[in-house]
Design goal:
The chain has six helices and 14 strands. The longest helix has 18 residues. The strands form four sheets. Strands 1-14-13-2-3-7-6-12 form an eight-stranded mixed beta sheet, with helices on both faces. A two-stranded antiparallel sheet has the order 4-5. It has a two-stranded antiparallel ribbon with strand order 8-11. It folds into two domains: 225 residues, Rossmann fold, CATH 3.40.50; 26 residues, no CATH class. Helices cover 24% and strands 29% of the residues. With 266 residues, the protein is an alpha/beta fold.
């Protein structure tokens, strides 16, 4: 594991992430959380998106046991999905990432406006790990229907013989499932001026992934940080952050946002 120079800690850099990542040593990032462009859905200032080069460098800078959370959604063209996220997932595996988990980020207001589909395409969170993730902190806020009930269980060997019998009391709360619901629209961030970004990540999504796949004090990296949602929620979750953003208007907004958060918690 390599350590980062202090100039990369708790900073949001105005740069192309490909150029920025070249300054990072190998195996230095414990967690990346990012939401890249969804095909050609938005322009994002007209900047190019070189997926394969970005993915390759992400594998290089991710430490062993580190995680990349890649949140992406298909564009629908002529009523059909492009398949881009599927190709990205396979490419990550070809690089050597382990596909630890595929999750769905489902909006609360997910209504269909199509006569040929059951709603829009799914928004995925690919949990990509370099080896077995070193930090797994499952959020346990699902209320169990049989909470407090004690039941008996048996386990069997492969030959069918009973190996062990034990009892277990169902806890009040269990771990979440792989589908997370979240709010959409203009109110997913406290700062209304972040609305200039056409596809902000919901703060609740960023917070919950950071809590799930990192520990306090870890550095959370976002190579395409937009208006700084990942960086903000890393700071509020007791983590450090590093963001990179190529589009000047988003970068200025992210700096303003993080400055206000720092003032509020100091």
């Amino acid at each position: 594991m390599n350590t980062l120079d202090r100039k990369f800690v708790n900073r949001i850099l105005w740069c192309d992430c490909l150029r920025g990542m070249r300054s990072l040593p190998d195996c230095c990032i414990p967690m990346t959380l990012t939401s890249p462009p969804y095909d050609d859905l938005y322009l994002y200032g007209g900047h190019a998106f070189d997926f394969e080069t970005i993915a390759t460098d992400l594998f290089r800078v991710t430490m062993v046991g580190g995680v990349v959370v890649w949140i992406v959604q298909e564009q629908i063209v002529d009523g059909s999905e492009t398949g881009t996220s599927s190709r990205q997932r396979l490419f990550f595996q070809e690089l050597g990432f382990r596909l630890h988990h595929t999750m769905v980020m489902e909006p609360y207001a997910g209504r269909s406006h199509s006569d040929v589909r059951y709603g829009g395409s799914l928004q995925y969170a690919f949990i990509l790990a370099k080896g077995m993730p070193q930090s797994i902190n499952l959020i346990r806020d699902r209320l169990n229907n049989e909470r407090g009930r004690t039941r008996s269980f048996t386990e069997r060997n492969r030959d069918g013989q009973v190996r062990r019998r034990h009892t277990r009391t169902t806890p009040t709360f269990g771990a979440r499932g792989p589908i997370w619901k979240y709010a959409t629209g203009l109110h997913i961030a406290a700062e209304r001026y972040t609305n200039l970004h056409p596809a902000r990540m919901a703060e609740s999504i960023a917070r919950d992934h950071i809590i799930s796949w990192s520990c306090p004090g870890d550095l959370i990296y976002d190579p395409m940080c937009g208006v700084g949602t990942t960086c903000k929620m890393a700071l509020l979750s007791g983590r450090r952050y590093l963001g990179m953003e190529i589009h000047g208007a988003y970068w200025v907004t992210a700096l303003r946002r993080l400055r206000k958060v720092r003032q509020a918690i100091s």
